[in-house]
């Protein structure tokens, strides 16, 4: 998700093109979240809950032999959370909201369009960098150090505790990709994702689209502790210790405008250079080594060519399987490797593979019928695969932070190869390949 998400509540409220909350009550109404009290869990876990309390969340790391930190969002110090309502509009008019939010960390000079920051504006602080930045120190006790050479990390402390189902669920929420600190726990069955104007608009448009039943329900904007969030259905909520896979779709993972921006005003990124070096110290060119930095498109293109993004039109970002989690798939490129990863993920269970195949076909039909899909460049969006031991299996479309509308009257077919200017994303080509991959697995 792009960094443009930090905008003031004022801008967000006034730029809202449709009613702020859908009024469906699906998200639990008042939006006040429930504190995870340590008295609700067994004594052994009290300390753990306190330790996690207030963290932004755990994130899978992606480094071989480094930790995967699962459920940060599940136990947060709740703070005050409320939905942004029509009343806020009035309060804003009366100038009171600003005072209420005087300690807010939201920037008050956010941009007016979704992606109009210069390269310089993008990501200068650690907090907003994407996965790979992990609050490892907080998970020390739950990581089995005997497995440090293994990309799969156990989450022993977390899942072996004698908790009731809801508590177990809360403790097993996982963020497999994306930006550290993006998510917080919402009230029952919902999660909060850091506000992005662009993603909000997508959610609003998707409500009216054929795709709506394949996208997490959107419950509107909420404000918590002075920060804005999008409230949505927690797709893991109805599963018992689910296995989860994030597959990033498309042949391209950056926006054309990011490319243009990098050309006009290149921003050399040391953090991306370091991420590159961690995977392959031979990857940077001599010049990049000298600069100890790369541009974002260069990094993104390298990630695409290393993984299956360019060759298959999708890539595996991360997996949680049982008690373990792995985001070390940066070099998973060949069809055979991808099949093997899926095979391990579904533990060879045909029912699950078949449910996934059916669901993907339904998704494809919905995409082909979707007005939204025709008119949007879908970049960086993922399919989230979820199943559990009862062999329930679902696939959902998530992450619309970089899904952008085309100019009026233009359409994409999502199959054509990308050339700069045509804005094609290869989404359907990737979906065909994904379906084919699962069919090959089903036929084994
Ligand atoms: O997966 P790794 O190799 O860590 O690279 C990440 C992902 O591509 C992020 O996309 P996503 O959020 O879809 O996972 C992207 O965020 P954007 O979505 O903002 O492009 C990050 O850009 P920066 O956040 O600029 O570092 C980039 O560093
Ligand atoms: N609605 C949801 N329900 C459950 N998990 C989710 C949901 N949305 C996102 N996630 C988890 O969070 C991760 C990152 O989400 P994403 O929207 O891609 O964040 P970002 O915009 O920071 O890239 C996903 O890989 C998935 O594990």
From TrEMBL:
<dbReference type="GO" id="GO:0000828">
    <property type="term" value="F:inositol hexakisphosphate kinase activity"/>
</dbReference>
<dbReference type="Pfam" id="PF03770">
    <property type="entry name" value="IPK"/>
</dbReference>
<dbReference type="InterPro" id="IPR005522">
    <property type="entry name" value="IPK"/>
</dbReference>
<dbReference type="GO" id="GO:0032958">
    <property type="term" value="P:inositol phosphate biosynthetic process"/>
</dbReference>
<dbReference type="GO" id="GO:0005524">
    <property type="term" value="F:ATP binding"/>
</dbReference>
<keyword id="KW-0067">ATP-binding</keyword>
<keyword id="KW-0547">Nucleotide-binding</keyword>
<keyword id="KW-0418">Kinase</keyword>
<feature type="region of interest" description="Disordered">
    <location>
        <begin position="102"/>
        <end position="122"/>
    </location>
</feature>
<dbReference type="GO" id="GO:0008440">
    <property type="term" value="F:inositol-1,4,5-trisphosphate 3-kinase activity"/>
</dbReference>
<protein>
    <recommendedName>
        <fullName>Kinase</fullName>
        <ecNumber>2.7.-.-</ecNumber>
    </recommendedName>
</protein>
<dbReference type="InterPro" id="IPR038286">
    <property type="entry name" value="IPK_sf"/>
</dbReference>
<comment type="similarity">
    <text>Belongs to the inositol phosphokinase (IPK) family.</text>
</comment>
<keyword id="KW-0808">Transferase</keyword>
<feature type="compositionally biased region" description="Low complexity">
    <location>
        <begin position="102"/>
        <end position="112"/>
    </location>
</feature>
<dbReference type="GO" id="GO:0046854">
    <property type="term" value="P:phosphatidylinositol phosphate biosynthetic process"/>
</dbReference>
<dbReference type="GO" id="GO:0005634">
    <property type="term" value="C:nucleus"/>
</dbReference>
<dbReference type="GO" id="GO:0005737">
    <property type="term" value="C:cytoplasm"/>
</dbReference>
């Amino acid at each position: 998700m792009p960094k443009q998400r930090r905008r003031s509540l004022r801008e967000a409220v006034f730029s809202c093109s449709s009613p702020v909350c859908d009024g469906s009550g699906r998200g639990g109404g008042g939006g006040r979240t429930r504190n995870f009290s340590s008295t609700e869990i067994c004594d052994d876990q009290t300390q753990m809950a306190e330790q996690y309390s207030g963290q932004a969340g755990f994130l899978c790391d992606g480094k071989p032999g480094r930790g995967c930190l699962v459920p940060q969002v599940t136990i947060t110090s709740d703070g005050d959370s409320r939905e942004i309502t029509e009343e806020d509009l009035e309060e804003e008019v009366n100038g009171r909201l600003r005072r209420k939010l005087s300690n807010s960390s939201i920037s008050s000079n956010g941009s007016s369009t979704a992606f109009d920051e210069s390269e310089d504006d993008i990501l200068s602080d650690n907090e907003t960098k994407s996965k790979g930045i992990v609050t490892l120190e907080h998970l020390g006790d739950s990581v089995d150090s005997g497995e440090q050479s293994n990309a799969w990390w156990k989450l022993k402390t977390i899942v072996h505790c004698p908790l009731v189902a809801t508590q177990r669920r809360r403790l097993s929420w996982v963020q497999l990709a994306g930006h550290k600190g993006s998510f917080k726990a919402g009230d029952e069955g919902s999660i909060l994702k850091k506000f992005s104007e662009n993603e909000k608009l997508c959610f609003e448009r998707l409500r009216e689209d054929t795709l709506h039943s394949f996208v997490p329900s959107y419950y509107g904007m909420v404000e918590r502790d002075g920060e804005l969030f999008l409230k949505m259905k927690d797709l893991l909520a109805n599963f018992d210790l689910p296995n989860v896979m994030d597959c990033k779709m498309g042949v391209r993972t950056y926006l054309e405008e990011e490319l243009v921006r990098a050309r006009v005003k290149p921003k050399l990124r040391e953090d991306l250079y370091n991420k590159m070096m961690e995977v392959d110290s031979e990857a940077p060119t001599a010049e990049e080594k000298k600069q100890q930095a790369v541009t974002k498109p260069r990094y993104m293109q390298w990630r695409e060519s290393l993984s299956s993004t360019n060759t298959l039109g999708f890539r595996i970002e991360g997996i949680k399987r049982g008690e373990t989690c792995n985001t070390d798939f940066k070099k998973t490129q060949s069809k055979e490797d991808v099949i093997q990863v899926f095979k391990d993920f579904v533990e060879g269970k045909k029912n699950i593979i078949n449910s996934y195949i059916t669901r993907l076909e339904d998704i494809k039909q919905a995409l082909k019928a979707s007005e939204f899909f025709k008119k949007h460049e879908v970049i960086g969006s993922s399919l989230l695969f979820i199943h559990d031991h009862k062999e329930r299996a679902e696939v959902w479309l998530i992450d619309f932070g970089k899904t952008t509308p085309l100019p009026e009257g233009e359409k994409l077919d999502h199959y054509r190869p990308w050339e700069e200017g045509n804005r094609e994303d290869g989404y359907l080509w990737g979906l065909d390949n994904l379906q084919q991959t699962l069919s090959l697995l089903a036929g084994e």
